[in-house]
């Protein structure tokens, strides 16, 4: 499988970004695109030199020359389209979050196992230089026993549609299922779960907010009924804990980057800010009974790995990894399982908000229901 034949389902903002990424990956062959907006599907196919375009994904799945599909739809469309594609004998790469609810995400994972196909979820933070450096330090024992982590994501005032970009579908539960937590938080939470070894969730508490001003006309047009700020606290089996703050909009000057604390050392990941507010990756420990705060040359680390390690290109991005895994060059990272655990945490925060109390993971799993759009 030197050439992986792929079709894109959904050619909106995200779909176009995926197409651009595939253009730079040897072995990735884009065969077809699909979108309910047939005119746009045809236009994108012509723009990128993709041979075929469809308006109905069911017709696309009838092709016999595909290896995989890339699902670039809004959250509540992920499960039905992914499950149909897996049932058609295709591997699936799905945009984050895995779905709109834990129930739907679990159905996707179970369908992949049932049909013996690979399910990959887009979690770009897993392939960053900071994540690679953090995992190297953790695997090398430089943090000791991990006991607490903090997941942060900051935007000063940058909500979809109401602040001038994107469509209202990002701000409505019926299509997006959630707000800042599912849009941004999934990346930061999944990154930490990966570094922590994807631990088993025990208990979850959280609170959601929509407090900052927005233009009245945009608010009405958007149907904005999701959170702009999410907070949470997670207890894992074995005593490990995680606190979360994720903001689409908040009247503050920024957050520190996500972090992990261990018995021998700690790491702070870069934050999402640019310019004067940006923070580099840092490692903190004690040397000869002196507190040490240090930075690393991540660019040289990455250059050296690409020079010396076979298949290092397979970890350059989520899509590089997907193609390399389908080529059989590397094993697929457990992104579906990490994404499902991320959804368990996210839905637990939503449920905690609704019930006004802490909830158990078992309770979230038992109460989770589908939010998938019926197609």
Topology diagram in text:
Blueprint: E1 4-9, H1 13-23, E2 28-34, H2 38-48, E3 52-54, H3 57-60, E4 68-71, H4 78-87, E5 91-94, H5 102-115, E6 119-121, H6 129-139, E7 146-153, H7 173-176, H8 180-196, E8 201-209, H9 216-222, E9 229-236, E10 241-247, E11 259-262, E12 265-268, E13 282-287, E14 290-295, H10 298-308, H11 318-326, H12 335-355, E15 359-360, H13 361-367
Parallel strand pairs: 1-2, 1-4, 2-3, 4-5, 5-6, 7-10
Antiparallel strand pairs: 7-11, 8-9, 8-15, 9-10, 11-12, 12-13, 13-14
Helix pairs in contact: 4-5, 5-12, 8-12
How would you portray this structure in words?
The chain is α/β, with parallel strands linked by helices and 375 residues long. It contains 13 helices and 15 strands. The strands form 2 sheets. A 9-stranded mixed beta sheet has the order 14-13-12-11-7-10-9-8-15. A 6-stranded parallel beta sheet has the order 3-2-1-4-5-6, with helices on both faces. Helix 2 links the parallel strand 2 (28-34) and strand 3 (52-54). Helix 4 (78-87) runs parallel beside helix 5 (102-115), helix 5 (102-115) runs antiparallel to helix 12 (335-355) and helix 8 (180-196) crosses helix 12. The longest helix is centred in the C-terminal third of the chain and has 21 residues, at 335-355. It is globular. The chain starts with a strand and ends in an 8-residue tail after the last helix.
């Amino acid at each position: 499988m030197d050439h992986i034949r792929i079709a894109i389902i959904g050619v909106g903002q995200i779909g176009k970004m995926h197409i651009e990424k595939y253009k730079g990956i040897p072995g990735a062959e884009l065969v077809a695109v699909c979108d309910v907006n047939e005119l746009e599907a045809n236009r994108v196919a012509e723009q990128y030199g993709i041979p075929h375009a469809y308006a109905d994904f069911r017709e696309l799945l009838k092709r016999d020359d595909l290896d995989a599909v890339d699902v670039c739809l809004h959250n509540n469309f992920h499960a039905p389209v992914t499950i149909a594609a897996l049932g058609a004998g295709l591997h699936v790469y799905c945009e984050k979050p895995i779905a709109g609810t834990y129930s739907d995400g679990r159905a996707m994972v179970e369908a992949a196992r049932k049909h013996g196909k690979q399910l990959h979820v887009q979690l770009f933070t897993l392939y960053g230089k900071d994540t690679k450096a953090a995992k190297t330090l953790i695997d090398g024992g430089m943090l000791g026993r991990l006991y607490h982590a903090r997941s942060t994501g900051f935007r000063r005032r940058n909500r979809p549609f109401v602040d001038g970009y994107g469509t209202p579908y990002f701000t409505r539960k019926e299509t997006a299922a959630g707000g800042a937590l599912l849009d941004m938080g999934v990346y930061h939470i999944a990154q930490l779960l990966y570094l922590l070894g994807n631990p088993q969730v025990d208990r979850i508490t959280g609170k959601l907010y929509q407090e900052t001003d927005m233009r009245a006309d945009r608010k009405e047009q958007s149907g904005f009924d999701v959170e702009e700020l999410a907070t949470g606290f997670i207890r894992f089996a074995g005593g490990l804990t995680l606190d979360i703050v994720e903001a689409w909009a908040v009247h503050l000057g920024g957050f520190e980057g996500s972090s992990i604390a261990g018995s021998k050392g700690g790491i702070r990941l870069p934050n999402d800010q640019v310019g004067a507010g940006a923070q580099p990756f840092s490692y903190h420990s004690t040397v000869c009974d002196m507190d040490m705060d240090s930075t690393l040359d991540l660019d040289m680390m990455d250059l050296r790995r690409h020079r010396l390690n076979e298949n290092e290109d397979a970890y350059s991005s989520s899509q590089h990894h997907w193609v390399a895994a389908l080529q059989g060059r590397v094993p697929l990272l457990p992104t579906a399982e990490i994404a499902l655990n991320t959804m368990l945490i996210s839905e637990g925060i939503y449920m905690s908000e609704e019930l006004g109390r802490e909830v158990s993971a078992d309770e979230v799993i038992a109460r989770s229901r589908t939010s998938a759009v019926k197609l």
